[in-house]
Amino acid sequence: MRVVVGYGNELRGEDAFGVDVIKELEKFHLKNTKLISAFQLTPEIVLELLEADEIIFIDACNNEKNHYALACSLSEQSRFNLSHHISPKTIVAMLESLYEKHPNFFIYSMMTDSFSKIIEFKKYEECVDAVVKELLKNDY
Amino acid sequence: MKTIVIDPVTRIEGHAKITISLNEEGKVDDAKIHVTQYRGFEKFCEGRMYSEMPALTARTCGICPVSHVIASTKAIDEILAITPPQAGINIRKIINLAQILQSHTLNFFHLSSPDFIYGFDAPKEDRNIFKMMQTHPQMARDGIKLRAFGQKIIEELGGKRIHPTGVVPGGAAHKIELSQKEIILAQIPDMLKIAQGALEFFKTNLHKFQKEIDSFAAFPSLFMALTNKDKTLEHYNGTLCFMDSDGNIIKDAIEPRDYKEFIGEAVEEDSYLKSPYYKPLGYPQGMYRVGPLARLNIASTCGTPLADEELKKFKALHGGKPVLNSFYYHYARLIEIIYTIEKIEELLNDEETMSENVKATSSVSKTKGVGCSEAPRGTLFHEYHVTKEGVITGVNLIIATGNNNLAMNAGVKQVAQAFVDSKNITDGALNRVEAVIRCFDPCLSCSTHALGILSSKIEIVDHNKKIVKVIDRS
């Protein structure tokens, strides 16, 4: 099963990118994909990922230079950030060491430095659509 | 004088730094925790409608939004002059207990247990949840399961895990469905087993930490908590009680709306965290502690069987007198986890809880309301002033962590004096300085009102105010 986790704060402008992608995906009633919308990643989310053989995390990424650029599998996110919210890599590490699950995982990110409002609605929606299209291709 | 700076303080909620000042002999002269965030909720809520306050103030925190929603709706209940139906109150209580359960679980399993498993002198690479996942995977899984249980209750009854919308002025937004009740009740035995296992682990290992028990904010102070008339443990209703370190009740039955008569709020120039104090004793002599340790010191009974069994053992630690060692905050937290699970079961089995009548409605009847509840970290106050149209004109928040500010500072100084020496500044000693703060489980995002830079700094300053060492963990 594929699980898509979109996370972000809907009150913080473009931080809601992951959540908005999930909202769009929900319209398509995907067959073999579980959709999870979250405010932030927390340790207990692993319990909802135990059946996943592929996990796709969707988030907004703080980047001043490449606004609205899309990227996949960013490597600079730290594993060691556990307090009340954690990184995708930490989630995957928890699945591996605690539950012996080894899913493939990808991180789809939209670059932004706007965490107070959506700057250009058209470009923002194009980014949402682009990720949705990409994920619809692979609803196996 | 030398100064050591620990920045950031790690494995806490929010951002802070610690400054340790050394005298000419290289001994610790003073130590302070500085909260470096500022939030501003008290100011920017002005001008909003009263009905927006639960949703607005819930955003103070991602860990304890429920506590803010509870205190906020209680303040608005006063403004509307309404009493929620019993079912609405019970639903609020269950959500509040689930919040305390998940927050205490986070502190013990994810933030503090690496110190208990590997010791305070273990290499810093080992003092984290990742090492624990390798060496104690069942404990890590238990922590995840227990926290998920609390979060799921909040989601089911409150609508969302974080910033729930199901607690509203006048009661609760929705009744509890039978299916929801059954799902929660079915998990109770398993959750109790996990909680009891964690407490047993803690008690079995306590003997290893006598030095820390004796020096982690171990001193006389006042204690404050909400309590019932018969002194049973209470997190939602009740009145305020102050107890001294000998166990004497020095002021009882204070209505929360009168809190300002007894609690003063001092401000220090080096921190954004307020320093509340017990007014009759003045500042800073009026230092008091809140939270699990204070609640269990003040309560004579929990009112649930398993928690009461453990409370007896807890009270025996100091011969029936209040427990003064802040290291035992962890002990008290674990007892409260057991209590919350038992109490959730009791409330769900109360027939009144399942009533369809969960909410009362009214319009603005008073221009001031105070809401008070016990949050995971201690007593929380929301005070609102409104126009007769319901527009907010004034807000005062005393957050649980803020109540402990004076005690946290005294604790940092005590542990620094016990473990830090300028000739030999070890990582283990500095970890202990951080760990004393972790005992209080502060939620600094909540209590200061800021734009944060990720996590926490220790600074050591010499007698000429020159910084000689900085430990930066960001």
Describe the fold and architecture:
The complex is a heterodimer of chains A (140) and B (474). With 140 residues, chain A is of the alpha/beta class. Chain A has one domain (2-137): Rossmann fold, CATH 3.40.50.1450. Helices cover 28% and strands 24% of the residues of chain A. Chain A has three helices and five strands. A five-stranded mixed β-sheet of chain A has the order 2-1-3-5-4, with helices on one face. In chain A, strand 1 (2-7), helix 1 (17-26) and strand 2 form a beta-alpha-beta unit. The longest helix of chain A has 17 residues, at 121-137. The model of chain A is unreliable at 78-83 (pLDDT under 50). Chain B is of the alpha+beta class and 474 residues long. Chain B folds into four domains: 1-36 and 420-474, no CATH class; 40-82 and 363-403, no CATH class; 84-218 and 325-361, Cytochrome-c3 Hydrogenase, chain B (Orthogonal Bundle); 222-299, no CATH class. Helix content of chain B is 42%, strand content 18%. Residues 448-455 of chain B have low confidence and may be disordered. The chains are: A alpha/beta (140), B alpha+beta (474). The interface between A and B is medium-sized, with 20 and 29 residues.
| Tally of DSSP β-strands of chain A | 5
- The CATH homologous superfamily of chain A: HybD-like
- Order of strands side by side in the largest beta sheet of chain A? 2-1-3-5-4
Q: What sequence of helices (H) and strands (E) makes up the elements of chain A?
A: EHEEEHEH
Mean pLDDT across the residues of chain B is: 90
Number of helices of chain B: 15
CATH architecture of the largest domain in chain B: Orthogonal Bundle
What value does the Rg of chain B take, in angstroms?
Answer: 22 Å
- Using the alpha-carbon principal axes, give the shape of chain A: globular
Shape descriptor of chain B reads globular
Give the low-confidence spans of chain A. 78-83
Distance between the termini of chain B: 26 Å
| Continuous helix count of chain A | 3
Helix content bin of chain B: 40-55%
Low-confidence spans of chain B: pLDDT under 50, at least 5 residues?
448-455
